[in-house]
Design a protein that fits this description.
Layout (H helix, E strand, L loop, with lengths): L1 H11 L6 H8 L6 H16 L2 E11 L28 H13 L4 E6 L6 H17 L4 E5 L7 H7 L4 E3 L18 H13 L3 E3 L2 E3 L5 H14 L3 E6 L16 H14 L4 E4 L3 H5 L3 H5 L4 E3 L11 H10 L3 E2 L9 H10 L42 H6 L20
Parallel strand pairs: 1-2, 1-9, 1-10, 2-3, 3-4, 4-5, 6-7, 7-8, 8-9
Helix pairs in contact: 1-3, 2-8, 2-9, 3-9, 4-5, 8-9
């Protein structure tokens, strides 16, 4: 196919495709799917080899969020039966992080629900970072705390935080349809604050909220222009008790096309399969590794993830290898560009991070749920049968940080 030959050639050179080419990827047929994945896989291997970066979430504060993000189980007015607790103590967070690192994670993502941190919250995170790095100085730390105020990013950087995650989630044109208590511009401002302070910028999207192909391409190109070092791709889990509970719009094939489009637009950037991986890709998860070079290990914010050992087995069986703590994530030229842009932040190394995402959102975004389940089509989502089929999909997290049960790492 001429399209895939063109996209592969551009990706191998680190060039960005046109919007029309990106849209064409999303319009390919199921008969063409393996060709699309193979082409995206060549680009992925050019810049990242066969390495898979493992990331681990620690939910510092769960629920109780004043924001109204429609997709979020932690939103204002959510009736989702999630765990709700205030800030973990530094030693509790460090113990949770230890579980992920022992399972092979090189990055720990510290997430807290809410609109944004207070100065006291920054102090809490500072103490938590110190506790984690006292136990393992090489571990990368990403913070995800919501909207940042002036000088907060600088304080996080000084505390030893390597990256900051804040997702754009969807296109600017449709952002008002999913949240009204803050704006798309607020999110862009926070990403720019983090990047400007020398933190590795991580920002991604949520697919499956009823957006168009044009919306997906818009947000992915916006992320490219923002200079995000890492792009987490979340697939919406329509959480019962949230306004998007009936938005079942994704299939495994659709998810693979979205991942491939993101890879073509961001050939030399970390692409992470984040929230919704187990639910929507299901048995086709290994194919996703041929496109993305990063995943989460263990549990998510408000939901259970796939067993950590199952992820490690999947990586090995698919012919990939876990990225080591001392290995660079980003290609050197990307790391050098990022370092120059932020005045010395060498992204992509163990000392400086290459971006973080969350398994379904973070800060004011909230978490998605995971669990193996049968496919539910968009058409079926409008029927009573779809409601019955969803019963076992939502596996709310009842273990890990904030509980007395060990995390699933």
């Amino acid at each position: 196919m001429d399209l895939l030959d063109t996209l592969t050639a551009k990706g191998l050179r680190g060039e960005t495709p046109t919007r029309e080419e990106a849209l064409a990827v999303l319009a390919t047929t199921d008969d063409e799917l393996l060709d699309v994945v193979a082409a995206a896989g060549r680009v992925r291997r050019r810049w990242f080899g066969r390495r898979v970066k493992l990331n681990y979430l620690v939910n510092l504060k769960s629920g109780l969020c004043p924001e109204d993000c429609s997709y979020c189980s932690q939103r204002l007015g959510s009736k989702a039966e999630i765990l709700k607790y205030t800030w973990l103590k530094p030693d509790q967070a460090a113990e949770a992080a230890k579980a992920g690192v022992s399972g092979g994670a090189k990055r720990v993502c510290l997430v807290a629900s809410g609109r944004g941190p207070t100065d006291r919250d920054i102090d809490r995170v500072t103490d938590t970072v110190a506790a984690i790095k006292d136990a393992d100085p090489a571990v990368e730390i990403c913070a995800c705390l919501g909207l940042l105020s002036d000088n907060q990013a600088e304080r996080l950087k000084a505390a030893g935080v390597d990256a900051y995650n804040h997702n754009l989630n969807t296109s600017e044109g449709t952002y008002g349809d999913i949240a009204t208590t803050h704006t798309y511009a607020d999110r862009v401002d926070t990403v720019e604050k983090a990047h400007g302070a020398g933190l590795s910028a991580c920002s991604g999207l949520i697919a499956g909220m009823g957006e168009s192909d044009e919306d997906l391409v818009d947000v992915v190109f916006a992320l490219r222009e923002l200079g995000s070092d890492s792009v987490p791709v979340n697939f919406l889990i329509p959480f019962e008790g949230t306004p998007l509970a009936k938005e079942w719009n994704l299939t495994p094939q659709r998810c693979l096309r979205i991942l491939s489009m993101v890879r073509f637009v961001n050939p030399d950037t970390e692409v992470r399969i984040a929230g919704g991986r187990e639910v929507h890709l299901r048995s086709m998860q290994p194919l996703g590794l041929h496109v993305a070079n990063s995943i989460f290990l263990g549990d998510y914010l408000t939901s259970e993830g796939q067993a950590g050992q199952a992820d490690l087995d999947m990586i090995r069986d698919a012919g990939f290898e876990v990225e080591g703590m001392g290995e660079r994530t980003l290609p050197r030229h990307r790391a050098d560009i990022a370092a120059a842009a932020v005045g010395g932040c060498g992204t992509g190394t163990a000392e400086a991070a290459s971006g973080c995402g969350t398994g379904g959102g973070c800060g004011p975004c909230g978490g998605h749920s995971h669990g193996a389940a049968p496919a539910v089509t968009a058409d079926a989502a409008e029927t009573d049968e779809a409601d019955e089929a969803r019963t076992d999909l939502v596996r709310v997290r009842r273990r890990g940080a904030g509980t007395e049960l060990a995390p699933n790492a």
